[in-house]
Structure formats: structure tokens, C-alpha cells
Design brief:
261 residues; alpha/beta; Cytidine Deaminase, domain 2; nine-stranded mixed β-sheet; three-stranded antiparallel β-sheet; 6 helices; 27% helix; 30% strand; elongated; zinc; JAMM_MPN+_peptidase_M67A
């Protein structure tokens, strides 16, 4: 049979016939035609195996809507955040597909009712997944000491939601209340959540929330998250200085987190 095919091909070439090949994708059949269009050979091509479909399982976690402050309980103070601090949080969150958890710091001015987040202190995490993170207490203590040496106050905590919205979970609400007890009542305590790989922020800056936990309106025993209106202020003259400083001072802390390779 093979010799017959070779003989036909040789004969057609000798007669200057043009051999045309086409593949019928639907039937997986290879047809050979002469210049008149007549089929001179048919070959069944083996079927391709079905392509394996890959489904990414989304993290199973219940998020709680972070509501604006009601008219009866308006936002008690103004919140400003330095652009450099926000960029550092965003950069750190982008280095890991699991959650990261750190401290935020700055100053509190009770006379002006103004809270300014101007510093970000990274910490070591002892447990981290796509939906959960625990801060090392020793690293937390060292980070707080570093903040105080700068003449700043610890104002709260930061953590990332790698692939889902920056809305808090019930665990986040519990953590926020724990940090509030740790910081005390002398100044406010905020929780900052940022989503580096969220689909909601695919074409824009990473979405984030500054939130606090307070009593639900008209309820004494229910606590819900409220989101702050945040003014992001530029601090360009310090930008390069801060980046250089962060590179050297936080190199060890970043190396202990899980990186996105």
C-alpha cells in the first residue's frame, strides 16, 4: 500500500500535476487532491485528546460590607494618608499571593481631630494563606519599638486580601478590636485592607479600605465595620529618600515573607 502511494505521487510529479493537501478539522481527515480536484488519497488522522479545563477555586470566605458612617454617628475625625506609605503597602502586598500583615503609624492631633498615616512598618508573619494571616508577636513588638524611636505612634494595622475585595471578614473585625485594646484609648486605631490582585482593581490602583469597628446604629450588642473617607496626600520630596531607607531597613523583614515568584 505504501509503495502504491509513493508510485502515485511520483507519477503526478512527473506529469507536473500540482498536489494540494487540506485538513478537514471537523472529521480529522487528510485529503490529497490532484489539480482537477479529484481525491486521490484519504488518510484518517487520529483524534486529539480533549483539552483539560483548569478551574481556579476562589477562596471561600464571607466578607462583611464596610458601610459608611450614618448621619446619627458621623465620622469623628479626618484621616490623611501619605502617598509613599500607601505605595509601600501596595508594593509589599504585591510580593505575595498570600496575606501579609503589618503595622501603620503616624500622628494623632486631637485638637484638629486629624489622624495622619505617614509610616508603614513591616512585620514577620508566622502563618499565612490566601485567606488568613497571623502576625508574629515578637516581630510586632520590635516593629512598635521602631515606630516609637521615630517619634511616631502606632495607629493600627494593615493586611492584604490578595485576590478578593478589601472588605473585612469576621476574623478581621475580631483582630481590629484586639489591636484597639493593644493600642489603648488615647488615640484612634484603624484597620487598613488592600487588594493587590483583585479583579476590581485590574485596570486601576489597588482598592483599599480604612475601617473601624463600632456599634451598629440602634443596637448595643452588635458591632459592624465602618469605612473612613481618606485623603491621600502627596509627599514627593520624601519619596526617593523613603524608598532607599525602606530598602535597607526592611530587607530582612521582607525576606521572611512568602514571595510571588
Amino acid at each position: 500500500m505504501l509503495n502504491e502511494k509513493k508510485g502515485i505521487t511520483k507519477l503526478l510529479k512527473e506529469r507536473n500535476f500540482r498536489i494540494i493537501r487540506r485538513i478537514n478539522i471537523a472529521k480529522r481527515v487528510l485529503l490529497t487532491h490532484d489539480e482537477k480536484g479529484d481525491v486521490i488519497n484519504t488518510t484518517i488522522v487520529s483524534e486529539e485528546p480533549p483539552k483539560l479545563k483548569i478551574y481556579l477555586k476562589k477562596p471561600s470566605i464571607r466578607l462583611i460590607y464596610c458601610r459608611p458612617f450614618p448621619e446619627g454617628n458621623p465620622q469623628k475625625y479626618k484621616v490623611k494618608m501619605h502617598l509613599t506609605t500607601l505605595l509601600l503597602m501596595d508594593f509589599h502586598a504585591h510580593t505575595s499571593l498570600t496575606e501579609v500583615m503589618d503595622l501603620v503609624a503616624g500622628s494623632w492631633n486631637p485638637d484638629k481631630n486629624l489622624l495622619t498615616i505617614s509610616h508603614y512598618e513591616s512585620c514577620r508573619n508566622i502563618a499565612s494563606s490566601a485567606t488568613h494571616c497571623d502576625m508574629c508577636p515578637i516581630s510586632q513588638s520590635k516593629a512598635a519599638d521602631s515606630i516609637h524611636k521615630r517619634g511616631l505612634d502606632v495607629l493600627g494595622w494593615f493586611h492584604s486580601h490578595p485576590t478578593f475585595a478589601p472588605e473585612p471578614s469576621q476574623q478581621d473585625l475580631d483582630t481590629q478590636q484586639d489591636f484597639h485594646l493593644w493600642i489603648g484609648d488615647r488615640r484612634p486605631c484603624l484597620g487598613v485592607i488592600l487588594s493587590p490582585f483583585s479583579l476590581h482593581g485590574a485596570l486601576i490602583a489597588s482598592p483599599f479600605r480604612c475601617m473601624v469597628v463600632d456599634k451598629k446604629e440602634n443596637f448595643e450588642d452588635q458591632f459592624v465595620p465602618y469605612k473612613f473617607q481618606v485623603e491621600v496626600v502627596s509627599d514627593e520630596r520624601y519619596f526617593h529618600h523613603v524608598l532607599r531607607e525602606e530598602h535597607y531597613e526592611r530587607k530582612d523583614a521582607f525576606s521572611e515573607t512568602r514571595y510571588f515568584e
